[in-house]
Amino acid sequence: MKENTCQCQMTSDNKDHAPLTLEIPVDLLGQLKEAAALAKTDLHSLILCYAQQGLINSSAQLKRQQFLTHAKDVLAAHGVHDKTIEEIFGKFPY
Q: What is the extent of the structural domain holding 53?
């Protein structure tokens, strides 16, 4: 049975790109290089794929945080004091 390391399909569909410099532990870099070789892809594509998968996997948490931020902004816009807002949102377990 073949196991996929990363299942993203990376295409360069004319999206804007930005350079990124990243320092990571040497042993982690070695593991990433091994994973890229096993997946028969390049390191750059593998790292982008892992980043995309991480965002997908954490999207519920990100959406929850966006909602909380928006709700705080709405309460503040309606004149609710910051201390009260923090007290209200301090009651949420996340």
A: 26-57
Q: Helices 43-57 & 59-77, crossing angle to 10 degrees?
A: 60
38 φ, ψ (degrees, to nearest 5): -65, -35
The pTM of this model reads 0.57
The tokens describing 9, both together, are 């399909």
pLDDT per position in the chain (94 positions), as tens? 445 666 666 555 657 889 989 999 999 999 999 999 999 999 999 999 999 998 888 888 888 889 999 999 999 999 999 999 999 888 877 6
Kindly state whether residues 72 and 47 are assigned to the same domain. Answer: no
